[in-house]
Amino acid sequence: MKLHPALKRWESVLALLLIAEILLFGAINPVFLQPSMLLYATSDFIHVGITALALTLVIITGGIDLSLGSVMGLSAITLGILWVGGFDIWVAAVAALAVGTMGGIFNAVAIHLSKVNPLVITLGTGFLFGGAALVLSGLAGATGYEGISNFDPAFVNLANLEVLGLPLPFALFLALTVGFMALLHRTRFGRYVYLIGQNPRAAAYAGTPVFRTLVVAYALTSLMAALSGLILASYFGSARSDFGTTALMPAITAVVLGGTSIYGGSGTILGTALAALLVGYLQTGLQLVGVSSHVSSALSGGLLVIVVALRSLSEMGRVWFQHRRVLRNVAAE
Amino acid sequence: MIIRFLQRHREASVALIIVFLFAVLGLVDHSYLSLDTLLLVYGNSLILFVLAIGATMVMATHGLDVSVGSIMGLAAVVAGLLMNAGWGLPASIGAALLVGLLCGLFNGVLVSLLKVSAIVATLGTLGLYRGFVYLLSGGSWIEGLPENFKALTKTGSLGLSPVAWLVLVLLIVAHLGLRYTAFGRSMFAVGDNREGARLIGIRVNEVQIVAYGLNGLLAALAGVIFASQIGFIPNTAGTGMEMRAIASSVLGGVSLLGGTGTVIGAALGAYFMTSIDSVLVLLRLEAYWNDIIAGAILLVVLITDGKIREAVDRLLRYQKYRKFIDPQAAGQHGDAAKAATRPLKTALETSEAHK
Question: Which of A55, A86, B76, B145 has the greatest count of CB atoms below 10 A from its CB?
Fold first, then answer.
């Protein structure tokens, strides 16, 4: 049984799962197969995908960013505060993206300075950025549930604009997927990212600009989180400090399900993008079939556990077969 | 000397910060500096204490459990449903604890036997267990819990509620158990060097599974305490608690890389995280300052700690190689040693420069 090498890749499995999932839901409820339904359903979860693309870089370097959910809220609130303060909405949006990027640079510098596990540092900065968002919205007198609204209509319409027949957020996601694929798989920076993840010490001895690479990776992640915050603000027409709290875990799920090793050193952007769609459509599809959104989140958690456990088991099985074959050959000699 | 001491006893630095926090409070208003305030904060931090004990155990084995918030919610819902269905108090609490234990054991099996990385496995079960919460409760709050259940966290003897006494005992038992029993030490051994622990005869997988199992049990206890304290059970019970529990333990000196940490340290960390809340209220600051202050202090502690550890390492290395770098310190060896070690000195300096 010879399989084509491209079919053995994890991405092909994900793509097949995605198609099977869409067909399955389509069979239960034909509405699901309508192109407009498939396209506009993405607006509910695409912010997770956009953030997960950049998070892939960080996880490949062997790090992690737990602060991205807080950055989403912070960027949305920054936008809201500046808009209320009388700034032009586009100036405010650029400022919000800048604040997000600064957060990422802060993460990388703190990790570099303290040499402490990124998990711990970004846990701390997560509290810090989330706290900053809360303080800003508190000072502006915005209540938790309503947040800041009444944005410029041009900004609110952004999320509903169509580009080449695709909703703008989804088009942005596709463009960013291509961009990140080029960045990670076709540039020197991308190779540095893998090298640092494989062996940080060897990378440092080989003269890799480790610190600079990490700053860029974390800054990109925060920038994408800030962008997602803006997309959410445009989609909902309001800015709240707790926007990102539910996005962190799905983003990590998408990266890990996409085949990136949580220990760093391997992974692809395409895998993350497919996994983000897989998880997103699972939620939408289940809701359409009539399963409540909470149960569907349980199922996507269960999916993560099963997939990762199966991959781990198959790896253990492969090693076991290899050992047995070697032992047999030795015995035969 | 002081730096050395703080390095040895991470608990002390958290204790210092707590003292500082209360000193600020005392400056603002003397009347707040009383046993009542201390006990108030203690009462508010019961849940975090229990979670921090569990987090310490799991982190000691070089693991991590981000599903504790969901286990808390699940246990609370199980206890609430059974109580409202007419089960007795001990039976329903026992069932809730059993559910927590099973959830924890499942995490442990995923991590140790199936070799899934801890954060990924528990991330999955975080969603899974939260889904069970909604399935069981049908999406609605559970109200009308029996009065004798709520009484468990009402102030009783010596200003502490029955549960508060239980948690105190639990803290002491867990601290001593982790430090002075063979099983407690084996958790740290597994976290420090898994292969080494296996070679000296520790059942590595079993230790890991039990650590996660106990963590689940404690998370369930935290859920029961939560339900008893607020008197009803929302579906979101326990959401976000996992991050607070991990932050408390890290603040108290438990390393995420496994092998070090004490329960007392983690408990002080938890006490601190809660005291910010209460102190802000007493200082009449808005509650929304809470997270930013907690985050800033957490970062300052972590970064200083990292810097101190680096400095101590450098000092140790310097003392180890001093006789090669500075021949005078080595005494009579004189010129020969000096000539011989010249290349070594430059090598050391360049390696320092690279760091």
Answer: B76
